[in-house]
């Protein structure tokens, strides 16, 4: 797994590089600015990019913009975005162009090494990850009561949150102490209520989560 890290804080940038190299992962380049990051992507063709949301010069959304551009330049590049705070607009904007090989984690997750590495590998394998804290905070905000989202049962909302973490049916079943069949039934019901038919071009799980998060706008 070839990795490029884009993070303007030199301590965190080097700390991430040391952590990943200690796990025998190949960090091919590190960058402190969006420009350096895109140059590194062009030069090294990495498998995965780890990108900070807020980067110079304005420390707003430069990381998101750079991540989107990197995937345009290198289709199939997996991207794991790190953010210090829950930022709904950035999460939804990132996933709006597709969910394959994308992750959005809070920086505090890096300190939970096994969880962080599991998320990184899931994204590298083409999966999708949204930090459970992001999901939890966003789902707690007000939503429009007159949408299909209001039809979801409490259990379905719980399943949806675990789906957002990137968990498969078996892992969700173990977390909720139910059968795989019960989880499959809940997920089918979620997709039906949100009118998400099968489509090879999109990840219905992440699409369902984003519908849920986006329901908090307005």
Characterize the structure shown.
With 218 residues, this protein is α/β, with parallel strands linked by helices. The protein folds into 2 domains: 2-131, 3-Layer(aba) Sandwich (Rossmann fold); 141-214, Orthogonal Bundle (Arc Repressor Mutant, subunit A). It is built from 10 helices and 6 strands. It has helices at residues 10-22, 34-44, 62-73, 88-95, 113-124, 132-139, 154-164, 169-176, 180-193, 204-214, and strands spanning 2-6, 26-31, 48-52, 78-83, 102-106, 128-130. It has a 6-stranded parallel beta sheet with strand order 2-1-3-4-5-6, with helices on both faces. Helix 8 packs across helix 9 (180-193). The radius of gyration is 17 Å and the shape is globular. The chain starts with a strand and ends with a helix. The model is unreliable at 142-146 (pLDDT under 50).
Total helices: the number is: 10
The end-to-end distance, rounded to whole angstroms, is: 41 Å
- What global shape is seen? globular
Overall pLDDT metric: 82
CATH architectural designation of the largest domain: 3-Layer(aba) Sandwich
The string of secondary-structure elements, in order, is: EHEHEHEHEHEHHHHH
CATH topology of the largest domain: Rossmann fold
| Poorly predicted residue ranges | 142-146
Number of domains: 2
Helix content bin: 40-55%
Structural class: alpha/beta
Largest sheet: 6 strands, parallel
Query: Could you tell me the number of beta strands?
Result: 6
Strand sequence of the main sheet, in spatial order? 2-1-3-4-5-6
Keywords: DNA-binding, Phosphoprotein, Transcription, Transcription regulation
Pfam family, one: Response_reg
GO molecular function: DNA binding
Domain Response regulatory: 2-122
